[in-house]
Every structure is written in structure tokens, then in C-alpha cells.
Amino acid sequence: MHDEMLDPQLKEQLHNIKGDEKALEECFYKNLEFGTDGMRGEIGPGTNRMNVYMVRKASEGLARYVLSTNETDKKSIVISYDSRHMSPEFALEVAKTVGKYGIKSYLFSELRPTPELSFAVRYLSADAGVMITASHNPPEYNGYKVYGNDGGQLPPKQADALTNFVNSVEDELSIPVVDKEDLLSQDLLQYIGEEIDQVYLENVLNIRLNKEIIEKVKSDLKIVFTPLHGTSNKLVQEGLRLCFLAI
């Protein structure tokens, strides 16, 4: 808590629970586990919480994994995130961590759904994808999921290798990162969005079934849609609009 380099927000949170031994133990009694499905946990200070330092630890392991699987000079990942608290901040920390290894990050400028991330990994020929999300967990949670160069979840062997790299990172507080402006000037950070949306939706529309039925009923068909505070809001509405369906 006396570390001058400690994130101010986390330092304040630690100060607020300074005398609460149970709360402190819950935050620090173990490391947040990173497994086949990535990692997730409550947002807050400590090694058993989702925060910038645990995101850096996972990203440091991911960078080492990418370096072990790609010996070329061209290495990249795609990063997306959902609408949860701290998701944009965590997403940027991923780019700031892997950038020091010369790994370029394609970072969505706004929240995007996981399927589009998977598509973007393949479309951009990236080495991996990172989705900052905690799926169905309560709102106080966030998480970190990694996808392979095919856009899918990592097979067991590759997932184990990644997990070993993450677990080999011993001090998450001392992981160096690169400033956002430096990443941009070195072309190690590129924001993406509408171009990927357009290509993604074109590919989705190309695999529609029974197009002739849609043409027959579209004038009478009305759809009620709620994203439930999720990332699908814009994309689903645009997809339905391209199908000439009323929403």
C-alpha cells in the first residue's frame, strides 16, 4: 500500500479495508487462477481480484506464449471487451503489456461481442485474441479470455502451455508496460471498429438460411430485441437492418 507506483484507485480501495482482516485475506489469500477458460474474479485490489496488475500478469504470459509459437517478425493480437466496469481499461493494459515485445494489438475502439473478436482474429491473421468479459457472472466481476489464431478456444495442449507461461510470472507489480502514445507512434497499437463490423456482417449475411422466406415475410415481421446491457446492441440492430427487418 506504500508503493508509490501502485495504482491510485487500488491504493484507495486497500486503505478502505485496512482494518478488515477478513476482507484483506479474501483479496490476497491466493492468486486468481488462470486456466483453460482464462481467468475471472471480482474487481478489486489483491492477487485474488481482477485488476490492472493481474491483467498485466495474464498478458505477460500471453506475450511469452505468442513468442514461443511465432518466430517471425510479424506478431499480433486482437483485443475486445464488453460493457462491464473497467473493461476498456483492462483491454488497453493488454496492449500496453504485450507491446514491449513488438506484438501489435488491434484494439476495438468500442465494446464488441466475442463472435466478432473471433472473426477479427482470423480476418487480421492474428496470433491470438483477448476478450475482456466475465460472461454470465455478477456485475462486480470481470475476466480475461484467450482465443487461438483460428478464433476458437485453445485446445488443451496449447491452453496448458499458455497457463504455464502465465503462472511463471512471479511479480505482477513489476511488469513493465509501454505508454499508449508510444505504442501508437510505433504502430504497435491500431484501433479497429467499423471496417471489421462491415466485413463481419457481410460474412454473417452470406450464411443466412432460407433467404426467400425472409423476403416474403419481412414486411410483416417485427422483432423486439434487448441486448440486456450486452455488447450485441449495435451489431444486431445493424444486421437486422441489412436484412430489411423492422426492430
Automatic annotation (TrEMBL):
One molecular function GO term is: phosphomannomutase activity
Matches recorded under Gene3D superfamilies:
Alpha-D-Glucose-1,6-Bisphosphate, subunit A, domain 3
Which InterPro entries does the entry link to? A-D-PHexomutase_a/b/a-I, A-D-PHexomutase_a/b/a-I/II/III, A-D-PHexomutase_CS
Q: Keyword Ribonucleoprotein on this protein?
A: no
Which superkingdom does the taxonomy of this entry point to?
Bacteria
Q: According to its UniProt record, what is one Pfam family this protein matches?
A: PGM_PMM_I
Does ATP-binding appear among the keywords? no
EC identifiers of the protein: 5.4.2.8
**Regions crossing the membrane:** none
Concerning PROSITE patterns, the annotation shows:
PGM_PMM
Specify the signal sequence span: none
Segments forming domain Alpha-D-phosphohexomutase alpha/beta/alpha: 33-169
Keyword annotations: Isomerase, Magnesium, Metal-binding
* Family membership: Belongs to the phosphohexose mutase family.
| Name of protein | Phosphomannomutase
Organism, scientific name:
Caldibacillus thermoamylovorans
